[in-house]
Design brief:
- With about 210 residues, the chain is an alpha/beta fold.
- About 35% of the residues lie in helices and about 15% in strands.
- It contains 7 helices and 7 strands, in the order E-H-E-H-H-E-E-E-H-H-E-H-E-H.
- The longest helix is centred in the N-terminal third of the chain and has 15 residues.
- The chain is globular.
- It binds flavin mononucleotide (FMN).
Amino acid sequence: MERSGVTGVKPAPGRLTSLALACSPRINGNTSQLAAAALAECRQAGCDTEFIQLTDYRFEPCRACGACNTTGKCVIKDDALQLFDKIRSADRLIVAAPIFSMGINAQAKALIDRSQQFWAAKYLLDRKAVDLENRPAREGIFISCAGTNLPGVFDGAIQVVKYFFMIMEVKLVKTLCYSDVDLKGEILEHPEAMEEVKEYGRKLAELG
Ligand SMILES: Cc1cc2nc3c(=O)[nH]c(=O)nc-3n(C[C@H](O)[C@H](O)[C@H](O)COP(=O)(O)O)c2cc1C
């Protein structure tokens, strides 16, 4: 399958790899544009980068079969395997996902639920979910947009993302959430948001 924006670049020795996961089904929408801007800064600062459009990948939600509780592995063999390989090998992670129905959008949540296998490996089986030996500390950011400015509109999504980063052994450096951004491309009317995500893209490129 053709995957939009995927570089597939093999990292040069000693260079950080930065991965952006654009989780919205709206291609080139608000969160996706912010993620691309942050990733471009990482690239300019010398990282090897990869931009993933989550809707290019086909994966099921968790079946709650419980198999990973004893094996530490998911029984479903689909594109989530590839996605988790990329997430586990990245040094820097940018997760960009919009607010749908007061929470993180379904595509992002489905992938995060599939990380239950890493939770099981870590907490039930005492196995490392991610190999952290001989590599830089892993760091990342969360980017989100919501159409409204309702109180607490980002709270649920931030909780979910904090949990995901914890499971995947990535330090969540910053959550960058922008309210009152609804129509496709509307984020371009918020240059301060663009500047802020770029700033954190540059920060991610610095060694932690
Ligand atoms: C199905 C759906 C549900 C949404 N639910 C909310 C919501 O509960 N609260 C909110 O503030 N915005 C909501 N929005 C608006 C989006 O958060 C907003 O359009 C955002 O900019 C989308 O980002 P994107 O372009 O990256 O997809 C919803 C949009 C969709 C399509």
